[in-house]
């Protein structure tokens, strides 16, 4: 009896990476024609089309562009060219977009939400295969000023309605949300007069979290809802403990890491991973910023207090940013509890606090950090088009980081998902 050959193996370079090899998964794939007949001994090409792990960035510029189009305010040729260049750079590296749903700018006048611009921006990303997260449904900062004179019971009613409206209207397009942002500081926030802080003082932190999660869940039961904060102290840990003890279902923890005052370094990153990983919830690094210039003074408690007109990159800063990016992303990808890693701004153009925190200069020229991250995300951790041949039963074996892979044979393309499902997949390509 003649032994059957083993399926041809298609292996991603990431399998050999000691930092991320433990994330790799394998799946047997049978390639068939449209009638279900196995394609035996057929040459195929396999390539990765998306990571299962979300590599994200904000997509705020696309909202601005959509709003301008809807208002009939054309861009100049130079503005269009720059946007197209930045858009291409975005999709060449990222696959998960965070869009701004700050209530005060989303609905600057009561009853007039800017739904159309946000929907157009979300569709721009989804139509090109990206995933979208909304940020945030509840936050005390950038709250509408028209809320301030209203009585507290009316503010709470409107807040609940806002969460239900937007989580519901965008269901199927935006299915991941920062349900509530920066709750640790919310009841004691004194930088401005806002109605959301007044409500937080009355119902408490856990009550605010419950409000946000329950209203969003009711509007979109399929949504992934995050508790998100910049406070990496024990205060945030205690809040999480209290929310879980109160029976609030949290789908993932959002951890901000704006490093304007200095890079965390691997030691702090590992400490944060351990302290927040102990809850057994998926971790999303939601807001990463790394400087390519000087760091701001460490004595400032609020980053917003550092107001400068010009904050340039430096040769040393550009090199440091690239090194920091590689170390941080490698450390995060190595931890299986991390599901999404989001950088807070592709370009220096419009960067928060005028900081040189983008991966790309304001003119659209990539910094060394962009090239370094692309070498990891779309290089070292990515399966480029690879040739293989199916066995006598039309099978091949695929191993790599979880995600989507395309199988091409004779000009026809099929798709397979590699993840924790180890059942054999059938891919129809003809």
UniProtKB/TrEMBL annotation:
Record's catalysed reaction(s): Endohydrolysis of (1->4)-beta-D-xylosidic linkages in xylans
Stretches with biased composition (Low complexity): 1-16
UniProt KW keywords: Carbohydrate metabolism, Glycosidase, Hydrolase, Polysaccharide degradation, Signal, Xylan degradation
This enzyme's EC code(s): 3.2.1.8
Source organism, top-level taxon: Bacteria
Membrane-traversing stretches: none
Region (Disordered): 1-27
Pfam families registered for this protein in UniProt: Glyco_hydro_10
PANTHER family: BETA-XYLANASE, GLYCOSYL HYDROLASE
Protein family per UniProt: Belongs to the glycosyl hydrolase 10 (cellulase F) family.
Protein name listed in UniProt: Beta-xylanase
């Amino acid at each position: 009896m003649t032994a059957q050959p083993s399926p041809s193996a298609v292996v991603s370079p990431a399998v050999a990476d000691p930092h991320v090899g433990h994330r790799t998964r394998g799946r047997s794939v049978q390639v068939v024609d449209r009638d279900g007949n196995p394609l035996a001994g057929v040459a195929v090409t396999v390539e990765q089309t998306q990571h299962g792990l979300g590599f994200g960035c904000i997509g705020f510029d696309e909202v601005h562009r959509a709003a301008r189009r809807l208002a009939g305010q054309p861009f100049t040729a130079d503005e269009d060219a720059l946007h197209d260049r930045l858009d291409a750079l975005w999709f060449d590296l990222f696959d998960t977009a965070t869009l701004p749903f700050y209530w005060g700018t989303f609905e600057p006048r009561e009853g007039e939400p800017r739904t159309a611009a946000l929907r157009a921006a979300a569709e721009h990303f989804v139509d090109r295969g990206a995933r979208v997260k909304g940020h945030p449904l509840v936050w005390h900062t950038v709250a509408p000023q028209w809320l301030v004179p209203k009585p507290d019971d009316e503010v709470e009613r409107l807040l609940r309605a806002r969460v239900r409206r937007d989580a519901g209207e965008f269901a199927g397009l935006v299915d991941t949300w920062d349900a509530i942002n920066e709750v640790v500081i919310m009841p004691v926030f004194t930088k401005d007069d806002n109605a959301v802080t007044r409500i937080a003082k009355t119902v408490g932190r856990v009550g605010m979290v419950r409000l946000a999660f329950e209203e969003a869940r009711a509007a979109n039961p399929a949504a992934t809802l995050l508790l998100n904060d910049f406070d990496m102290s024990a205060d945030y840990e205690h809040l999480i403990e209290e929310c879980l003890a109160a029976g609030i279902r949290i789908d993932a923890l959002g951890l901000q890491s704006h490093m304007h005052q200095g890079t965390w370094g691997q030691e702090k990153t590992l400490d944060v991973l351990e302290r927040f990983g102990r809850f057994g919830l998926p971790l999303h690094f939601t807001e990463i910023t790394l400087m390519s210039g000087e760091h701001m003074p460490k004595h400032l408690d609020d980053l917003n207090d550092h107001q400068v007109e010009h904050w340039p990159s430096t040769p040393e800063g550009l090199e440091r940013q690239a090194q920091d990016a590689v170390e941080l992303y490698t450390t995060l990808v190595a931890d299986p509890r991390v599901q999404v890693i989001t950088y807070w701004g592709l370009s220096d153009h419009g960067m928060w606090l005028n900081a040189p925190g983008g991966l790309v200069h304001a003119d659209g020229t990539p910094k060394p950090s962009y090239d370094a991250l692309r070498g990891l995300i779309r290089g070292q951790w990515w399966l480029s088009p690879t040739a293989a041949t199916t066995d006598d039963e039309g099978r091949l074996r695929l191993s790599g980081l979880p995600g989507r892979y395309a199988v091409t044979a004779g000009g026809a393309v099929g798709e397979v998902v590699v993840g924790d499902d180890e059942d054999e997949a059938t891919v129809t390509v003809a």
